[in-house]
Amino acid sequence: VPESLPVASVVARIKAADADVGPNAEMEYKVVDGDGLGVFKISVDKDTQEGIITIQKELDFEAKTSYTLRIEAANMHVDPRFLSLGPFSDMTTVKIIVEDVDEPPVFTSRLYSMVVSEAAKVGTIIGTVAAHDPDASNSPVRYSIDRNTDLERYFNIDANSGVITTAKSLDRETNAVHNITVLAMES
Q1: 88 or 43, which is more confident?
Q2: Neighbours of 130 (CB within 10 A)
Q3: By CB atoms within 10 Å of each CB, which of 11, 23, 26, 120 scores lowest?
Q4: pLDDT of res. 75
Protein backbone atom coordinates (compact mmCIF):
# COMPACT_ATOMS: atom_id res chain seq x y z
CA VAL A 1 0.00 0.00 0.00
CA PRO A 2 1.25 3.53 -0.67
CA GLU A 3 2.21 5.53 2.42
CA SER A 4 -0.15 8.31 1.25
CA LEU A 5 -3.27 6.14 1.65
CA PRO A 6 -5.71 8.06 3.90
CA VAL A 7 -6.77 6.78 7.33
CA ALA A 8 -9.86 4.52 7.12
CA SER A 9 -8.89 3.28 3.64
CA VAL A 10 -9.29 -0.40 2.85
CA VAL A 11 -5.90 -2.11 2.58
CA ALA A 12 -7.01 -5.68 1.90
CA ARG A 13 -9.87 -8.14 2.01
CA ILE A 14 -9.33 -11.67 3.25
CA LYS A 15 -11.75 -14.57 3.47
CA ALA A 16 -11.72 -17.70 5.56
CA ALA A 17 -13.36 -20.66 3.82
CA ASP A 18 -16.33 -22.15 5.67
CA ALA A 19 -18.50 -24.98 4.32
CA ASP A 20 -21.43 -23.91 6.50
CA VAL A 21 -24.35 -21.80 5.32
CA GLY A 22 -26.61 -19.27 7.00
CA PRO A 23 -25.83 -18.14 10.56
CA ASN A 24 -23.32 -20.99 10.99
CA ALA A 25 -21.16 -19.41 8.28
CA GLU A 26 -21.05 -16.00 9.96
CA MET A 27 -17.51 -15.04 10.95
CA GLU A 28 -15.67 -12.59 13.06
CA TYR A 29 -12.09 -11.53 12.45
CA LYS A 30 -9.61 -10.01 14.85
CA VAL A 31 -5.98 -8.97 14.82
CA VAL A 32 -4.43 -11.05 17.60
CA ASP A 33 -0.74 -10.26 17.20
CA GLY A 34 1.91 -8.58 15.08
CA ASP A 35 3.61 -5.23 14.79
CA GLY A 36 0.56 -3.72 13.08
CA LEU A 37 -1.61 -3.71 16.21
CA GLY A 38 -3.17 -0.26 16.52
CA VAL A 39 -2.14 0.69 12.96
CA PHE A 40 -4.65 -1.57 11.22
CA LYS A 41 -8.04 -2.94 12.18
CA ILE A 42 -10.21 -5.65 10.71
CA SER A 43 -13.97 -5.77 10.41
CA VAL A 44 -16.46 -8.09 8.72
CA ASP A 45 -18.36 -7.47 5.50
CA LYS A 46 -21.72 -8.96 6.57
CA ASP A 47 -22.68 -9.76 2.96
CA THR A 48 -19.51 -11.58 1.88
CA GLN A 49 -18.12 -12.64 5.29
CA GLU A 50 -14.77 -11.18 4.22
CA GLY A 51 -12.38 -9.58 6.68
CA ILE A 52 -11.78 -5.97 5.67
CA ILE A 53 -8.41 -4.59 6.80
CA THR A 54 -8.32 -0.79 7.12
CA ILE A 55 -5.75 1.78 8.21
CA GLN A 56 -6.20 3.40 11.63
CA LYS A 57 -3.07 5.61 11.65
CA GLU A 58 -1.11 7.36 8.93
CA LEU A 59 1.65 5.30 7.32
CA ASP A 60 5.19 6.59 6.91
CA PHE A 61 7.56 4.63 4.66
CA GLU A 62 10.57 6.43 6.15
CA ALA A 63 9.62 5.20 9.65
CA LYS A 64 8.41 1.65 8.83
CA THR A 65 8.36 -0.21 5.50
CA SER A 66 6.25 -3.25 6.40
CA TYR A 67 3.84 -4.66 8.98
CA THR A 68 2.88 -8.19 9.93
CA LEU A 69 -0.57 -9.01 11.27
CA ARG A 70 -1.65 -12.30 12.82
CA ILE A 71 -5.38 -12.58 12.16
CA GLU A 72 -7.90 -14.99 13.57
CA ALA A 73 -11.14 -15.93 11.83
CA ALA A 74 -13.76 -17.61 14.03
CA ASN A 75 -17.35 -18.74 13.74
CA MET A 76 -19.61 -16.29 15.54
CA HIS A 77 -22.28 -18.87 16.41
CA VAL A 78 -21.04 -22.21 17.70
CA ASP A 79 -23.60 -24.85 18.63
CA PRO A 80 -22.80 -25.81 22.27
CA ARG A 81 -23.29 -29.50 21.35
CA PHE A 82 -20.18 -29.35 19.14
CA LEU A 83 -17.81 -27.35 21.40
CA SER A 84 -15.68 -30.44 22.05
CA LEU A 85 -15.00 -30.73 18.31
CA GLY A 86 -13.50 -27.20 18.15
CA PRO A 87 -11.72 -24.92 17.90
CA PHE A 88 -13.97 -23.25 15.36
CA SER A 89 -11.32 -20.78 14.26
CA ASP A 90 -8.17 -20.50 12.20
CA MET A 91 -5.20 -18.15 12.01
CA THR A 92 -3.37 -16.54 9.11
CA THR A 93 -0.55 -14.07 8.69
CA VAL A 94 -0.92 -10.96 6.54
CA LYS A 95 2.14 -8.96 5.55
CA ILE A 96 1.55 -5.37 4.47
CA ILE A 97 4.33 -3.68 2.51
CA VAL A 98 4.38 0.13 2.60
CA GLU A 99 5.36 1.80 -0.67
CA ASP A 100 7.31 5.04 -0.74
CA VAL A 101 5.57 8.10 -2.17
CA ASP A 102 7.54 11.19 -3.16
CA GLU A 103 6.49 13.79 -0.61
CA PRO A 104 6.88 17.56 -1.04
CA PRO A 105 9.30 19.57 1.09
CA VAL A 106 8.11 20.70 4.51
CA PHE A 107 8.90 24.10 6.05
CA THR A 108 10.11 24.15 9.65
CA SER A 109 7.38 26.73 10.31
CA ARG A 110 4.11 27.60 8.59
CA LEU A 111 4.66 31.30 9.29
CA TYR A 112 7.84 33.32 9.60
CA SER A 113 7.74 36.82 11.06
CA MET A 114 10.64 39.10 10.15
CA VAL A 115 11.28 42.73 11.08
CA VAL A 116 13.37 45.21 9.12
CA SER A 117 13.88 48.95 9.38
CA GLU A 118 12.62 51.14 6.56
CA ALA A 119 16.13 52.63 6.59
CA ALA A 120 17.68 49.26 5.64
CA LYS A 121 19.83 49.37 2.53
CA VAL A 122 18.95 47.30 -0.53
CA GLY A 123 20.44 43.83 -0.07
CA THR A 124 19.94 43.76 3.73
CA ILE A 125 19.26 40.27 5.07
CA ILE A 126 15.91 40.20 6.88
CA GLY A 127 15.66 36.51 7.68
CA THR A 128 15.87 32.90 6.52
CA VAL A 129 13.28 30.24 5.79
CA ALA A 130 14.06 26.53 5.92
CA ALA A 131 12.41 23.42 4.51
CA HIS A 132 13.50 19.81 4.22
CA ASP A 133 12.59 16.82 2.08
CA PRO A 134 10.88 14.27 4.36
CA ASP A 135 11.76 11.40 1.98
CA ALA A 136 14.65 9.04 2.63
CA SER A 137 16.40 10.54 -0.42
CA ASN A 138 16.49 13.92 1.40
CA SER A 139 16.78 15.82 -1.90
CA PRO A 140 18.12 19.38 -1.84
CA VAL A 141 15.44 22.07 -1.62
CA ARG A 142 15.29 25.23 -3.76
CA TYR A 143 13.39 28.34 -2.70
CA SER A 144 11.55 31.04 -4.63
CA ILE A 145 9.15 33.87 -3.89
CA ASP A 146 5.63 33.63 -5.29
CA ARG A 147 5.74 36.86 -7.28
CA ASN A 148 1.95 37.17 -7.11
CA THR A 149 2.51 38.01 -3.43
CA ASP A 150 5.40 40.42 -4.12
CA LEU A 151 4.31 42.14 -7.33
CA GLU A 152 6.58 45.12 -6.83
CA ARG A 153 9.58 42.83 -6.09
CA TYR A 154 10.55 44.31 -2.75
CA PHE A 155 12.31 41.08 -1.74
CA ASN A 156 14.71 38.47 -3.10
CA ILE A 157 15.47 34.98 -1.83
CA ASP A 158 18.60 32.93 -2.26
CA ALA A 159 17.37 29.80 -4.06
CA ASN A 160 19.78 27.51 -2.18
CA SER A 161 19.96 28.96 1.35
CA GLY A 162 16.47 30.47 1.86
CA VAL A 163 17.98 33.82 2.94
CA ILE A 164 15.57 36.69 2.23
CA THR A 165 16.97 40.14 1.43
CA THR A 166 15.53 43.52 0.49
CA ALA A 167 15.52 44.26 -3.25
CA LYS A 168 14.12 47.80 -3.00
CA SER A 169 13.98 50.56 -0.45
CA LEU A 170 11.09 50.13 1.98
CA ASP A 171 8.70 52.85 3.19
CA ARG A 172 6.76 52.12 6.39
CA GLU A 173 4.24 54.88 5.69
CA THR A 174 3.37 53.39 2.28
CA ASN A 175 3.32 49.77 3.41
CA ALA A 176 4.05 48.78 7.02
CA VAL A 177 3.55 45.03 6.49
CA HIS A 178 4.45 42.79 3.57
CA ASN A 179 3.00 39.28 3.38
CA ILE A 180 4.89 37.15 0.90
CA THR A 181 4.64 33.48 0.06
CA VAL A 182 7.80 31.44 -0.30
CA LEU A 183 7.82 28.21 -2.28
CA ALA A 184 10.07 25.24 -1.58
CA MET A 185 10.69 22.65 -4.30
CA GLU A 186 12.86 19.56 -4.44
CA SER A 187 15.82 19.97 -6.78
Answers
A1: 43
A2: 15
A3: 23
A4: 85
